[in-house]
Amino acid sequence: xxxxxxxxxxxxxxxxxxxxxxxxxxxxxxxxxxxxxxxxxxxxxxxxxxxxxxxxxxxxxxxxxxxxxxxxxxxxxxxxxxxxxxxxxxxxxxxxxxxxxxxxxxxxxxxxxxxxxxxxxxxxxxxxxxxxxxxxxxxxxxxx
Length: 144
Ligand SMILES: [Zn+2]
Known about the structure:
By secondary structure, the chain is of the alpha+beta class. It has one domain (2-142): HIT-like (HIT family, subunit A). Helices cover 35% and strands 17% of the residues. It has a five-stranded antiparallel β-sheet. A hairpin with a 3-residue loop joins β1 and β2. The longest helix is centred in the middle third of the chain and has 22 residues, at 56-77. The chain starts with a helix and ends with a helix. Zinc ion (ZN) binds at residues 5, 8, 10-11, 48, 98.
C-alpha cells in the first residue's frame, strides 16, 4: 500500500500544487489538465483510498467542497447545473487508483457534451491546458 501511494499521481502533491483551486482538511479540489470545457474540477480525498469508503468527517468535507464548487460555477460560469461522477474499478473507466470525482459545470448552450470529451481516449497535447493557462484560471477562481 505504501509503495502504491508513492506512485499515485493524486498523492504526489508537488506535481499538482499549482492546480489546487482550494483544499479542506481532507480534500483537494484541482483544475485538471484536460481541456474539457468551462468549469471542470477534480475532487479527491488527501487520504489514499480507492473506493467509496469515506469517513463521516470526510463526507462532511466533501459536501463542503461541493458547496464551494457550486458557488464558483455560479460566479464564473453563470450556471447552477452540474454533473458529479466517479468511476470505481478499471472496468468502470477508472484509470487513477485513488478515489476521485469529476465535476462539470453544465449549461443549455454548450458547444458539446463535456462527458463525451472526457471519455475520448488519448487527448492530444492541444487537448490539455498549458501551465500558464492553469495558473491563470486557478488564480481567477482563487480570487473569488
Ligand atoms: Zn493516492
